Write the structure tokens for this entry.
Amino acid sequence: MKKIAILGSTGSIGTQALDVIASNPSLFELFAITGHSNVELLAKQARVYRPNMVIITDESKYASLKEMLSDVDDVKVFAGMQSVCDMVAMSSVDMVLTSMVGYAGLQPTIAAVQAGKTIALANKETLVVAGELICSLAAKHHSAILPVDSEHSAIFQCLAGEQNKSIEKLLLTASGGPFRTFSKEQLLHVTKADALKHPNWDMGAKITIDSASMMNKGFEVIEAKWLFGVDKEQIQVVVHPQSIVHSMVQFTDGSIKAQLGMPDMRLPIQYAFAYPQRLSNTYQRVDFTQMATLTFEQPDTEKFRNLAYAFEAMDRGGNMPCILNAANEVVVHAFLHDKIGFLQMSDLIEWAMQTLPFMANPTYADYVATDAHVRKMVAQKIG
Ligand code: NDP
Ligand code: MG
């Protein structure tokens, strides 16, 4: 039995992970779940799935969670990020699924890596902000990091039985999001409701906006660099609107392997949970006879500047990806609250990258300081 802790169980990935665990009761045991604001759903999950522990990171909600679970005595209730960091290091935990959104994932991921746990990594922001630190800690503490992001799971699956030195390049596919065919003029007027309608995937709000702006793909480029140890030149983004080919690896002999499947995040979640086994399931299958076409095109980095900024941040290294991420979190929040327009998000990210102090060799404390400073400055600029 693999004992799993789900960080962010109330989110899109978290709820799908609970479904995977419930479908495989002889393989996986749910040890702990965490949520931030959705106390009702967290209490319901605790009641249904009966983990040993439940943690609400927003401490102000502790009393209501405790109250909601007052008649459930086999689930211990805690609050706060420190409780999450303590929990992931417990000897009963085998695997930690990092499925909370944003920078908030960094601290508990570091705690889990330092405790030598196997990480099923959905929270890509962790690797964007501090990929170098996470990878060196993972090597030091023998913590395996298994990708959950569908593209990286695809690459990971293509690499089974291969050596990383045989990689010529990674072909990272992107759906292109809801605005793929829009002109710059049209992008000026898109609303948050338009941006929240992703053509192929049903995800949390933040990553859905990141997908519409292509920042998600930019983050995934940085994530791929750290997970697979490749250079910038070895990562090519290819727009593939049908989201059937989840990504590909081109090897040094010119051969290309791809992983295909229906767009269903339960598949990469299950692959990471069961790795190196494959489990059977009844999820929808790809039927090639019903598929008109699979198409591929070049991304437009003039229209979707975030993708270019991510490549630039990766190239510059240091705290630049942390600046990119913090600025992005603030602008996405502002866009979701109707404070700025869609294209202004990229303007502000560009401003932050050009203006805010660069550090070539940041420590963990420097990342924390950079994140706080960038958030403050970008929020002030938005006004
Ligand atoms: P959701 O917004 O659906 O869920 C986010 C989760 O994080 C919720 O459980 C939420 O709790 C929790 N959370 C929010 N803020 C905080 C905080 N400050 N501290 C601790 N926990 C917090 O996001 P997704 O599930 O879509 O995405 C989660 C991660 O997985 C992201 O990093 C995303 O990039 C990545 N990912 C997601 C994919 C998807 O298909 N959804 C695909 C690939 C990667 P609550 O709701 O209770 O407030
Ligand atoms: Mg992805």
